[in-house]
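Lab notebook, bench 4. The sequencing result for the construct came back, and we need a structural model before the next group meeting so we can plan mutations. Quick request posted to the team channel:

Model the 3D structure of this chain.
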Amino acid sequence: MDYEKRKRFIVNLLYGGQIALLVYITVKYGFGLLAPFLLAFLFAYILKTPARFISQKTKLPYKPVVLLLVLLFYSIIGLLLVLLGIKLVTSTIDMVSVLPSVYTAEIEPALSAFFNGIEQIIFKMDPALVAALNDMFSQFVQSIGELVTNLSVQSVSALSGYASSLPGIFIKLLLMVISTFFIAGDYDMLVGFASRQLSDKARALLLQVKNYVVGTLFVCIRSYALIMSITFVELAIGLSIIGVPNAILIALAISIFDILPVLGTGGIMIPWTVITAIQGNYPLAIGLLVVYLIITVIRNILEPKIVGSQIGLHPIVTLASMFVGAQLFGVFGLFGFPILLSLLRHLNDTGTIKLFK
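Done. Here's the predicted structure in token form:
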């Protein structure tokens, strides 16, 4: 009996491992190839309801209406992305181009004053160490200068590399736009054809998964909107207390930037703090650092609880799934893994599958 249990456990483990490996390979390497069509299907699903509503109210044919909606949708999104991209590129170029002059005017004098202070202290203790300190300072300043120069050159090269990839991106976008129109125009026919290829049990399971995932996505959006609102309030209060001008507008911009999982609030607050300290405004730098630390601690405490409670997972499970997902699949895994675990828990609770007790 024990032998049969062990054998069944090993078989189930190997079977589950094969499925997990297949899913990993598919998502990791297949998602990039299928992304234009998957996104087209998602946008078609979103646009079909308003297209039907407009078609019914205006008595116009459905396909011309959905075509206009698709064009309007992509025109608005494209315009916003172009404006954002232009602003981002110009700001990056301006920032990178002034880095050497900022280093010469701000950073190098600050470093020189810092090392001079250390030199005076060391000279009082042991004058023989001053020469070694001067050599170390010269090498350090030279290394920093080369780093700043290389950063400027590499940033321009990176922007040139992104520019060279624009034709491929344009082709993918064109495929996505065309696919969205065709899928939205014949959505019922395509979904009906795919549904007929499945058994009744598989069809019911797929419908259950779709309904739950759509609902969970809405819940996740609501959860992160709440987190962003909390971050905005914290930033607005903190920046106002330390006397930052236009604190409300700056807090709003940083809280929107905070949605990005890799950069987040630190992507703005940390460079801001460092630059402020280099410029010699130590009270403001300390204030910015304190505000950032408070926001980071509160977010790390609240995010697993808010997201976990909304999707029915324990905070530690949510935190672990977000970490593992981000390590394996980046941004997609960061949001997708908690939703996947929540879906598995839901299917297990409803008796559709049996993974755990």
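The chain has a mean pLDDT of 76.
Will bring this to the meeting.
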